Amino acid sequence: MINRILIRIKVVQMLYSYLLTRSEFHLLEPDNSSRDSKYAYSVYINLLLIVLQLSGFRVSRSKSSPMEALGDANMLAGSKLAKALAADSAVREIIGRGDSGVEIFNPALMRLYSIITSSAIYIDYRKKKRPSLDDEVRFWTVVLNTVIAPSQLMAECARTDSNFSIAGFQKGVAMAVETLRQYADSERSYADAKSSLAASLDKAYELYHALLMLPVYLTQMEAERIEAAKEKYIPTDEELNPNMRFVDNAFIRAVRENPDMEEYLKKHPFSWESDFLLLKDLLVQGVEGICRLYGSRRDDLCRRLRTLACADEEYRSPVRRSCRSARRAVDLLERRPFDHGHFRTQDNPPYCTERP
After folding, report:
1. What is the pTM of this model?
2. How far apart (Å, rounded) are the C-alpha atoms in residues 291 and 301?
3. How does DSSP assign 158-226, residue by residue?
4. How far apart are the C-alpha atoms of 66 and 300, rounded to whole Å?
C-alpha cells in the first residue's frame, strides 16, 4: 500500500495549513489612537452588520430591521459569505452586546437593497449557477465600494453620529473590504491544501502501481535477452535451453494478471517502455545482484520461485535494494511526475550534485 508515513505527513501539512489560515473571519483590532480611527472602526463593524442585514440576518435585539419584511423574497439571502460571517464568534458577540449603533442605517437599507438588486454586478452574479466564495467576495466588495460607500442616503445616516468624519467613513469601508478579502484568501488556502493533498496522494498511488509493474518490465527485458541469446551464431547449451523460472515466476504472473492492476492501468495508462536505460541499469544491478547473492545456487532460486510467497520475497527484496541504491535509476525516476517523498531515504539523497 501507499507509504503510511507519507499520508500522515500530508495530512499534518494540510492540518497545519488550516490552523495557520483557519477558515473564519479575523476582525481587525480597534484603533483608538485618533478620533477618525475610532469612528472608522465603528463604520467597519456596522458595514459588516449591514452585509448581514442585506443577506437576511437579524443583527439587533431591540429593533427589527426593514429587511425582515422581505422574508423569503430576499434575493440576497443564502450567501455562504454571510453565513460564515454570522457564525463568527466575534461577530456574534458584537450582535449580542447590541451596542454597535447599526440601527442608524436602517432608513437606507431598503434603498440600498433596491440599488444592489438592479445593478450590473448583481445581474452578472445571478447568472452563476453555483457562485464560489471568490464570486461572493468579489460581489460584496464591489457593492461596498460602488453602491454602499457612495450612497447619499448612507452618508446622511452616518452624519447622525456625532463622531462622523469623511476620512473615518472611507477608512471604515476600506477595512470592511480588507476583511472580506482576507477571509477569501484563508478559505482558498485551505482548499488549496486539500487539493494538494489529493494530488500528492494520487501521484504516490501512481508511483505505487508503477513500482509494482517495474519487475514485470524487467522480466520482460530479461526474456527478450534470453531470446536474443538463442539467435547467436554459436549459442551455448545454456543459452539454447535456459532456465525460465526466473522470468516466468508466480509473483510476476500475479502482478501482471491482477484484475485491480489491469483496471487501474486502463484508467491511468502507464508504461516503462520509454525508459530503456533505467530498465537496463536495474536489470544489471538487480537481476545480476540476485545471481551474485545466491552464487552458484541459481537453480535453488528458480525452484523457490515456484510459489508466490517465496517469489514475492526472493524476487522483490533484492530488486528493491538495488532500486534504492542505483543513483542513475533514481535520477531517471526523478524525471517521472511522481511524488518521491516516500521513495527517498537518508542513504539515497537527491541525485543533483554530482554525476558520473
Report:
1. 0.55
2. 9
3. HTTSTT--HHHHHHHHHHHHHHHHHHHHHHHHHHHHHHHHHHHHHHHHHHHHHHHHHHHHHHHHHHHHH
4. 90
Tell me how far the alpha carbon of residue 33 is from its chain's centroid: 42
Complete DSSP assignment for 17-37: HHHHT-SS--PPPP--SSHHH
Judge contact between 47 and 91, C-beta under 8 A: no
Question: Residues 137, 181: contact at Cβ < 8 Å?
Answer: yes
Ordered DSSP codes for 226-278: HHHHHTSSS--HHHHS---TTTS-HHHHHHHT-HHHHHHHHHS---STT-HHH
DSSP code string of 200-213 = HHHHHHHHHHHHHH
Cα 328 to the chain's mean position, in Å? 31
**pLDDT block averages, 10 residues each, the chain of length 356:** 61 65 68 88 93 89 79 86 85 87 90 93 89 87 92 92 91 91 68 69 78 82 84 82 76 84 86 77 63 44 46 51 52 54 41 32
Q: Cα dist. 339→238, 280, 328, 343 in Å?
A: 42, 23, 18, 8
